[in-house]
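Dock PBG; give full complex structure.
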Amino acid sequence: MNGQPLTEQAPAAALRLGTRRSALAMAQSGMVAREVTRLTGRPVELVEITTYGDTSREALAQIGGTGVFVSALRDALLEGRIDFAVHSLKDLPTAAPEGLALAAVPEREDARDALVAAEGLTLDELVEKLAGAGRAARIGTGSPRRMAQLNAWARARGAQLETVAIRGNVDTRIGYVTGGELDAVVLATAGLNRLGRGAEISQHLDPELMIPAPGQGALAIECATADADLTAALAALDHAPTRVAVAAERALLATLEAGCSAPVAALATWSPENELQLDGVVGDPDGAALLKMSANGPIVLDETAEQQARALGHALAARLLDAGAATLMGERAR
Ligand SMILES: NCc1[nH]cc(CCC(=O)O)c1CC(=O)O
């Protein structure tokens, strides 16, 4: 730094990994940093990026959700203030940004949503217990997708359940349950596991009950396209089956022209025969109408695999649109 000549033993300069300050972002970035060092031998330093959305909850609601976090990291990448960034893939807009490469999609964590309920109860037990007490189960979530599927589940079995819109980080959300304001909250299993809080989950919500958000449980590692060496090095963290599965999920989302807060769910899973099964749901938050469809196809894991997966996603989205998905989502948007 101060003009000393480099010696042969000079350690490689640390790669700068830009991260938000939230506990989940720090946990995810820390895990990826260790993996990058293990696989490439390069040291990694965390660089905190503070966003407008981090400083103001009100602002976050107004400027439109998680997109602001992603943009701040992307600006830092494009301006060369950081070398790479880790995003929750489900928070990433479907449009590919100019000048940035999706260098790796590491192996997906558990994609399922999770119920965190008082006394460790399951959804069935909770609803039954509170019916006995003469009231509806109050379940917190800020996600129209989770609301739609919870309410549809309750309608189908005549259960008393009320969804309550909440915001905030994982601590705040679980605090509503431990503080007694709510009977349960729904969060992503992956986030809880990465925070070391998996033991607080009272029930994993299987896809039959709730299909997760497109890309849930997966991470995206992004860097500048111009940094070809780093793009190639980061590819060591890529997990092709995950990358291809989320390509199908995100193609469905993109074709429906829905954003990360839309009541759209999608999950692609691999069968042992290399068939990709894609399940998609579009609904309205009160669960009165829920469109659920599946598509599947054999996918060859070659260089066209993502293209094949996207075709599956587009085709399923087209079928959902034919069945009235646009009307369902349009009614919500207006
Ligand atoms: N929308 C916020 C967000 N973005 C990613 C995760 C969890 C981790 C993941 O899905 O990879 C969460 C929290 C949640 O939905 O509970």
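Observed: Residues 66, 88, 90-91, 187-188, 190-191, 216-217 surround PBG (CB under 6 Å).
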